[in-house]
Structure to design on (409 residues):
């Protein structure tokens, strides 16, 4: 049997999202690299429990995007659905979590919504989005001497992954302000109207900003709040203030599990939906559960930092300072609703086809947005789960589960 690749899962790991990591994931699109991983995943699945006895094996990054998975585990919501759940495995980069998922080491992950397209259509690994994990929850954070977007000209900004909403929104913000994007690493010459993008693991971004090796980063919480509380950076723009109630991370399951274990997939989704509903009304308790002071030790983050994100007590201050542009959108810094709107997926595809990406993007240009919205997402389970907890109104969603996307720089 082909051995699955070694994946670093230690909470103390500092291996980060290097260019080599990115190229490894990009290479999954070639048969010679993808085949051993797919074989390893199939072999592990065949050896494991059958049917609904398969344990829930969560893979996650220490960001608030993982909240529903961790709350579902911490509050034993999987067990309430008749499932066994192993201790969630913490990863430090998106490359590592993707490899672990494809090779079968974990079977329930949260993943950047654009990255799911790279996995399904680039690497050709059969997996589907079954729910959103959250809405908003990211920001563009900059050094304290940066006061406006144009100040980023000639400087380097970090993104967590090329296939991310962070990359999409940052490039739209920069273009609106007359800046163009380049990718020259850390040592390349950058023009005054250029912004150099590099990929960093979220856990490395605050220290990079503090050391002045980057001028800013755009990433999921709580790293923006961490930079604020540490006094090394400030929020220049919230992502949800650019794309109203956008998704960032989604729940991703293999098509094999969806097809052969539909009841298992339903129960997993039920637990995640119930976790999101509980989180909406228990923000401080959620912050405590995720903090480094809780017995689960899900994340290395302090309660103060997580509370700044989840309880959003200072949102009015951001409005007064002008950081919040669209006050009428009435949003939280991060919020939770599980339904994957087709309109969002379609717009995401069109946006990715226009922005700068690294790696082989040939597959992307061939994709039809409407097709991806139908093929990438399987909303059968989340629809049932939402109905079971009171229907769309329980999350403040329209009864027909349709919306029009709102983007405004």
């Amino acid at each position: 049997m082909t051995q699955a690749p070694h994946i670093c899962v230690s909470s103390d790991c500092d291996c980060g999202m290097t260019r080599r990591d990115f190229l490894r994931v990009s290479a999954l699109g070639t048969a010679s690299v993808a085949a051993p991983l797919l074989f390893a995943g199939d072999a592990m699945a065949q050896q494991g429990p059958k049917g609904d006895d398969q344990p829930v094996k969560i893979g996650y990054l220490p960001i608030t995007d993982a909240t529903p998975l961790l709350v579902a585990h911490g509050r034993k919501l999987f067990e309430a659905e008749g499932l066994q759940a192993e201790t969630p495995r913490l990863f430090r980069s998106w490359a590592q979590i993707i490899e672990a998922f494809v090779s079968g080491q974990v079977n329930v992950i949260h993943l950047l919504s654009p990255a799911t397209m790279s996995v399904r259509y680039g690497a050709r690994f059969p997996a589907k989005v079954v729910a959103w994990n959250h809405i908003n929850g990211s920001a563009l954070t900059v050094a304290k001497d940066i006061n406006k977007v144009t100040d980023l000209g000639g400087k380097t900004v970090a993104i967590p992954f090329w296939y991310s909403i962070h990359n999409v929104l940052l490039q739209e913000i920069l273009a609106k302000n007359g800046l163009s994007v380049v990718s020259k690493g850390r040592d390349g010459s950058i023009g005054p109207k250029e912004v150099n993008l590099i990929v960093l693991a979220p856990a490395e971004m605050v220290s990079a900003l503090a050391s002045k090796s980057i001028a800013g980063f755009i990433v999921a919480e709580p790293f923006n709040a961490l930079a604020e509380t540490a006094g090394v950076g400030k929020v220049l723009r919230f992502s949800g203030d650019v794309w109203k109630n956008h998704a960032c991370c989604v729940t991703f399951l293999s098509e094999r599990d969806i097809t052969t274990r539909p009841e298992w997939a339903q129960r997993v989704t039920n637990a995640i939906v119930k976790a999101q509903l509980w989180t909406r009304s228990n923000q401080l308790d959620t912050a405590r559960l995720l903090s480094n002071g809780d017995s689960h030790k899900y994340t290395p983050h302090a309660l103060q930092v997580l509370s700044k994100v989840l309880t959003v007590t200072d949102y009015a201050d951001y409005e007064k300072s002008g950081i919040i542009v669209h006050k009428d959108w009435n949003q939280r810094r991060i919020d939770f609703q599980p339904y994957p709107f087709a309109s969002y997926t379609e717009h995401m595809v069109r946006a990715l086809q226009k922005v700068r990406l690294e790696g082989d993007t040939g597959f992307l240009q061939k994709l039809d947005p409407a097709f991806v919205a139908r093929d990438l997402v399987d909303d059968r389970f989340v629809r049932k789960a939402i109905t079971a907890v009171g229907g769309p109104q329980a999350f403040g969603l329209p009864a027909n589960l349709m919306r029009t996307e709102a983007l405004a720089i």
